[in-house]
Design a protein that fits this description.
By secondary structure, the chain is an alpha+beta fold. The chain has a single domain (18-233), classed as Ribosomal Protein S5, domain 2 (2-Layer Sandwich), CATH 3.30.230.70. 29% of the residues lie in helices and 29% in strands. It contains four helices and nine strands. It has helices at 85-98, 125-139, 166-169, 199-233, and strands spanning 18-22, 30-36, 39-50, 63-70, 110-120, 149-156, 159-162, 175-182, 188-191. It has a five-stranded mixed sheet with strand order 1-2-3-5-4. A hairpin with a 2-residue loop joins β6 and β7 (159-162). α1 (85-98) packs across α2 (125-139). The longest helix is centred in the last third of the chain and has 35 residues, at 199-233. The chain starts with 17 loop residues before the first strand and ends with a helix.
Length: 234
């Protein structure tokens, strides 16, 4: 079935409106908020700090530990409070997406904890969480080689689109969702695929994701620059 017009009126290659802020949780070592459309993610970083129990420590480098969760009221149908299998899976893939740009060799036997809360959800929550976490780690002053950006692409009907919303994910003829994370050089650190798609469509989606991540990377860097410029002036 032909998908001729997106539910919210966007162009095929157009993301939803974005917004980013730093220092949103004052007692954290670093924190950030990222909003895309109606999806809002808040990330808080604590550490590096000594890891307990000690048998989990790595004497050669620090450990990154991510915890992703959706607040119960973040979706119209109330989510059951507490950990879920989906939350555990997203926590792990978030760690994998962020680790390539982190240098934790300076912090042996330590842990860096990143807590990601989705306070409002309309699809793209893992990508929003990754961006918020990347900015929060930078705000915390962790040694980083780069920032990580993330966006979903996918197939809705017969069209490849970027940044699917909930209506597109639930499209009656089926939709394919592909969360992608990458650094500023376009090197992929996360690629998941839920659905059916052919090779040409996949590569078209990845090119669309690359361009989207370039735009998101600019927003992240602009937010960081403006924050530290303002802090310096104060």
């Amino acid at each position: 079935m032909s998908y001729t017009k997106r539910f919210d009126g966007r162009k095929i290659e157009e993301m939803r409106k974005t917004e980013a802020k730093l220092d949103v949780i004052k007692r954290a070592d670093g924190s950030a908020m990222f909003k895309i459309g109606d999806t809002i993610a808040v990330a808080a970083v604590y550490g590096p700090r000594e890891l307990h129990p000690k048998f989990l420590q790595n004497p050669e480098k620090g450990i990154l530990r991510c915890n992703y969760d959706m607040i119960s009221f973040s979706v119209p149908d109330r989510k059951r409070p507490g950990p879920s299998r989906r939350g555990t899976e997203i926590s792990l893939v978030t760690e994998k997406a962020l680790l390539p740009v982190l240098d934790l060799k300076q912090f042996p036997n330590a842990v860096v904890d990143v807590f990601i809360q989705i306070i409002q959800a309309n699809s793209g929550t893992r990508c929003a969480g990754i961006i918020a976490a990347s900015m929060a780690l930078a705000h915390a002053g962790l040694p980083m080689k780069d920032l990580i950006s993330a966006v979903s692409v996918g197939k809705v009907g017969d069209k490849i689109v970027i940044d699917l919303n909930k209506e597109e994910e639930d499209y009656e003829d089926g939709a394919t969702d592909i969360p992608v994370a990458m650094n500023s050089k376009g090197e992929i650190t996360l690629l998941q695929l839920d659905g059916n798609i052919n090779k040409d469509e996949l590569f078209k989606g990845l090119e669309m994701a690359r361009k989207g991540c370039e735009e998101l990377d600019k927003l992240q860097r602009k937010t960081l620059r403006e924050f530290y410029k303002g802090a310096k002036n104060e």
